[in-house]
Amino acid sequence: MKYLYAILVIAGLALAALTLDPSLVPYGGSNLALTHPISQMIAMRGIVAAVIATLGLIIVLIALARALMLRRGLFLGILGVGFLAVAAGHVAVLADRGLDAGHMPPDYGVTHVSQGTGEVTVLSYNTLGGATTMEDLLPIIVDRGVDIAVLTETSTENGERLAGMLADQGRPFNVFHSDADPYDAEIKSTVVLVSPALGEYRQGPGLGLTWGSVHVRSLGGGPDIIGVHPIAPVRGLEDTWLEEITSVYQQCDAPNTIMAGDFNSTIDHMHATGASCPSALDGFVAGYGTWPASVPGILGSPIDSVYTDWTTTAAAIIDVGGSDHRGVLVRLTR
Could you cite one Gene Ontology molecular function of this protein (predicted)? Predict the structure, then answer.
């Protein structure tokens, strides 16, 4: 019987450890981290850590009770401690990426009247069809010196209205959009605002994403900018999701490019596709969940992000208005 207990404990520990990096296990011709429901699980490391830690604590308490009453419980104790160690591993991964919401000091950035610090500030926000309003975003863009704003689930009309409000404050922006049908839900619309101080830009073909993408190219040596919103990995659309995030992360090879938006995937999914995109948030706030905004950051999924080969000097998570997403701010320098 002891051998059976040992086998069960080893199997339980192996399964728990697998949650740390599912891609380590071959799964046919696919990556396990990109298959349903593992893809959803790995996106929520904080919740996985909480569940495993709770199980571990319960098992340890049962093992202690058995040890006191029956002088048994060694295998259960090992299993419980192992679960607690795995939970700690998940928290360590998130902490290494950045579990604090961060802080973004004021900076009037690269504008038509001042070079500020010479750094470029990027805002990415899924506004949930304007639930986070343009009035909510206006003071953030002005006070934090935002030079590039990528707004997913935001109508062209709202993007142009925001640009008008910014122009009234002496901060003109050029507006680019995914050309979504105005009669479609705003989930399919992505808008990118770019300060003219960064130079002249021309919009090129997007990535063909279901929920919209915008690709604008600099005509004067500035960074190319890509706003993205791949489809979510809901049941029945997993193949489309995988195709779209793979297409998105393939853009990382392009130098001097800033890619931002709601990726509906995390750093773990990015690595699982075989990409090695440099995350502008990693080491700052990349472990802090941006969705859903209704739960603490450690329990959320950090799916809103910025990827670039530029160097990050500051980053912060912001939460304004009624969107179910938090936004991200990042300040970059060459």
Answer: catalytic activity
Name the β-bridge partners of 305.
Answer: 261
Residue 113 tokens read as 């009247």
State if pTM tops 0.90.
yes
Q: What angle do CA 100, 102, 103 make, to 5 degrees?
A: 155
Q: What is the tens place of the pLDDT at every residue in 281-325?
A: 999 999 999 999 999 999 999 999 999 999 999 999 999 999 999
- Classify domain 120-333 by CATH number: 3.60.10.10
Q: What is the pLDDT of residues 187-198, one digit of tens each?
A: 999 999 999 999
Domain coordinates in residue numbering, the chain? 2-97, 120-333
**Cα distance between residue 307 and residue 192, in whole Å:** 15
Using the structure block, give the residue that is written with the tokens 């340890």.
60
CA distance 278 to 255: 11
pLDDT at 112 over 60: no
Q: What is the largest CA-CA distance in the chain?
A: 78
Name the 3-class secondary structure at 303. coil
Secondary structure element (H or E) that encloses residue 330, with its range: strand 327-333
